Amino acid sequence: MGGVWSRWGAVLIACAVVAPFVVLLALRRPRVAVVAGMVLGTLPWVWMVLTPVGSGRALSLVPLHDLATVLGGDPVTAAIQVGGNLAVFAALGFLLPFHAPRFAGRSGAWRIAGLAAAGSVAIEIAQWLLAIGRVSSVDDVLLNASGAVIAAGLRAGCRAAARAAHPRAG
Question: Residue 57: beta bridge partners?
């Protein structure tokens, strides 16, 4: 855990400092706060995955190969790798339907998946081009897009539960 703090402590501190301002913004300008939440919920993860860990580059295009390797190793490393990849575009998946209704519902989930996959491909290409010691992997794209869709599903579930708990009178 010390390695995580030494490598990304500045990112974590920046998020902790900015978060209360986003909450205050949400109280006064909800639509602006949704956009800020998408950016601030995604940007730290992008910062982390573009942080150099050495030099050189590697490419992995075999689907689920890297994931199987990670899951077969140390459970803590697996949880960090899988959880981190699921989180990269989760804020986008959760909040985008609030900002743009065409991203709500089943067809919206496909749109969110496509958008998150495109963003993830851009990140993987950047990692490869920058030669920052990371593996550019198709599994990262799959997990990043899955995290966005899972978050969109959670948002839809929360809205459905809220409607069930508070049906409109009349």
Answer: 134
Whether residue 169 has pLDDT greater than 60:
no
**Side chain identity, residue 136:** S
Place of tokens 């689907």: 63
Asked whether the beta carbons of 58 and 7 are under 8 A apart, the reply is no
Residues 6+ apart with CB under 8 A from 28: none
Which tens digit of pLDDT belongs to each residue from 6-52? Answer: 777 887 788 788 888 877 877 788 888 888 889 889 999 999 999 99
pTM given for the model: 0.86
Sign of CA dihedral 44, 134, 3, 69: positive
CA dist 50 and 77 (Å) reads 18
Angle at 79 between CA 74 and CA 81, to 5 degrees: 95
Backbone angles phi, psi at 161, to 5 degrees: -65, -40
Task: Give the integer Cα–Cα distance in Å for 55 and 129.
Answer: 11
Cβ neighbour number for residue 79 with a 10 Å cutoff: 12
